[in-house]
Amino acid sequence: MTGYYYLVDAGYPNAKGFLVPYRGQRYHLQEWRGAENAPSTSKEFFDMKHSSARNVIERAFDVLKGRWVILRKKSYYPVEVQCRTILACCLLHNLINREMTTFDIVDDIDEVDFTHATSVAHDIHYIETSNEWTQWRDDLAEEMFSEWVLRNQ
């Protein structure tokens, strides 16, 4: 699979564009602490990595939302535009942190203007589970686990 997808929690179906953890497996990072709690299956390993990635993403978004108003509300742009917007915010954030050692943010924006947003026709109203997407996740989990096992032998 190529393109963009959301890394989401188990409340979503495993559908195209939504990468969910496996249900019924350990998930939260504290459950993996200690050598005796190492994952023993591809599904466990996948869920551990999924949880770790979501943790990093959530912390990064907290920082970015603090700086960029456009990230604080629901976006009506197509997924590809949302991804490019987030990337641009990340790049600008890093540039500001690297180049501007003394920078006071003055935020005069009270409300975000969404008059330029796309139509409601682009909203996602229903997500259907996809066998193809499930197979891709299973293959990805097996590949990740196999590489990890080889590195740790």
Notes on the protein architecture:
This protein is an all-alpha fold. It has a domain at 6-72 and 128-151. It has three helices and two strands. The longest helix is centred in the middle third of the chain and has 26 residues, at 42-67. Helix content is 44%, strand content 3%. The protein has helices spanning 42-67, 79-99, 131-151; strands at 6-7, 18-19. The two termini are 29 Å apart. A two-stranded parallel sheet has the order 1-2. Its cofactor is a divalent metal cation. Pfam families: DDE_Tnp_4. Belongs to the HARBI1 family. It is found in: Nucleus.
Give the SSE layout.
Blueprint: E1 6-7, E2 18-19, H1 42-67, H2 79-99, H3 131-151
Parallel strand pairs: 1-2
Helix pairs in contact: 1-3
Pfam family, one: DDE_Tnp_4
Domain DDE Tnp4: 3-94
InterPro entries: HARBI1-like, HARBI1_dom
- Sketch the major β-sheet: 2 strands, parallel
Structural class: mainly alpha
Mean pLDDT: 83
Kindly report how far apart the N and C termini lie: 29 Å
Rg, nearest Å? 19 Å
Tally of DSSP β-strands: 2
List the uncertain runs. 107-120
Beta-strand fraction estimate: under 5%
> Considering DSSP H and I runs of 4 or more, what fraction of the residues is helical?
40-55%
Order of neighbouring strands in the sheet with most strands: 1-2
Principal-axes shape call:
globular
Question: How are helices and strands ordered from N to C?
Answer: EEHHH
- Count the DSSP helices: 3
